[in-house]
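Q&A FORM
Asked by: J.P.
Topic: structure of CONSTANS interacting protein 2a

PROVIDED:
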Amino acid sequence: MENNSEKSAVNAAQSAAYPTLSQLNAEKNKQEYVKMFWTDQQREMENINDFKNNLLLQPTRIKKIMKTDKDVRMIAAESPVLLAKACEMFIQELTLCSWLNAQENHRRILKKDDVTDVIMQTDNFDFLVDDDTDGRSTPSAVPFYVDGGSNGRT
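REPLIED BY: S.T.
REPLY: Here is the structure written out as C-alpha cells.
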C-alpha cells in the first residue's frame, strides 16, 4: 500500500513539473487570442479618424487626475486622449486574459481570482505585483468595485 502512495506522489510531482498536452494547447490558444487582440487593436487604431470621440474613458477625467500632481502645470491636449486610449487597451487585455483563465477553469463567470492569476502568471503585468519584505509576491490589494453596489460602504 505504501508503494501505491509513493507512485501517486511521484506521478503528482511529474505532472506538476511537466505540463500536459491539453495545458500546452490552452497556453498556445491564450497566446493566439492575445495576438489576435493586439492585431485588432492595431487595425482599429489605423482606421480611426476622430480619436477623441471613440474613447470609453473620458479624457477630461484623465486630465483631472493628472492635475492632482503638484508638479504638473501644463498638459498638452493630446496627452489625456492618448493616456485614456492606453488605459482602455490595458483594461481590455487584462480582461481578455482573465476571461481566458476563467474558461480554462471551465467557468463562465469572471472572478477576482482570475484577474489575480493572470497578474501573477503574466510578465507584462509584473508592475501590479507588490513584493513583500519576506520575499513573497502578491498582487496589490486593490478593491474591485461593482457599478451600482454599496461596495462595503454605508
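FOLLOW-UP: The chain has five helices and two strands.
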